[in-house]
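Notes from the 1:1 (GR / supervisor)

We went over the backlog. Supervisor wanted to see one worked example end to end before approving the batch request, so GR pasted a single chain during the call. The sequence is below; no edits were made to it. Supervisor asked that the structure be written out right there so they could see what the output format looks like.
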Amino acid sequence: MTNSKEFDQMVLKTGSVFKVDIVDEFMFKVIQEHRSMLSIPLDLDRVRDFNSKLNNKQLYLTTDMPGLYLIDEKTLKTCAIYLDIYKDGFDEAPWIKYMTNEKNSIEYIVEREKNLNKLAHKLVDTVIFTAEKSLRIILFELLLDRVSSLVNNDEFKELKQLLIVLTRKELDVFFEEFDGKFTSQLGYRYSNDEPITIYRGENSRSQSFKDTFSWTTSKEVAIWFATRFNDGKLLSSTVAKNKILYIYEDDPESEVLVKATDLNDVTEYKKSLNCKWL
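Structure output shown during the call:
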């Protein structure tokens, strides 16, 4: 981000995060009513006083979780962390110390870790992993924007791919939205057009294969997904290898990412009376 105003605009788009310096008494009361009953009610003046100690008005409120989000344009990590509310109120000192610790900044992480694979894991764990679900995609966009200015173009292309596959596989993101924005940007990993058979298990809670990218080279894994809940079905298709967006190495689910438009004929298998897939 080029400035804190842009950052504020991105964060406020969530509709559940409110910047302290623009929260009035009525809004503050409403936010308090939505917070956990176990939380100690806070005083708006005290919150604003604490906010002023953090510089640049970095403190935000959220109705999604008990406590307060601290969102820092520089580090981003604090978007995921809320203040613990104790019987005696919250302890300000540790957070002021945290906010001034350069080791929590993305700049510091990128500078210290030169291995791109390890760097990707570190950034995902630090910036996105502990975030509330509704914020993860926005955080991912902010992270890419920040990192793009810290590494060269060639490194950024590889790092971006690693960040996409790690985020999609390891975090509970909203796949449909994430896929539309990021998964489709992955590059092909294979040059030949040899066809390969892939499978997908869908159930009553699954997205349609037309709206997502997840398939597997393992029929057994697909059957497991198909039978997790009611109304399961097993799908199979073939795809040219050079149309595969990504294959997760050493993955027990043997997952591959493929655009629905790159699939050949999709066949649906029916389950017979003896519980076998035909």
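Supervisor's comment: Residues 4-103 form one domain.
Batch request approved.
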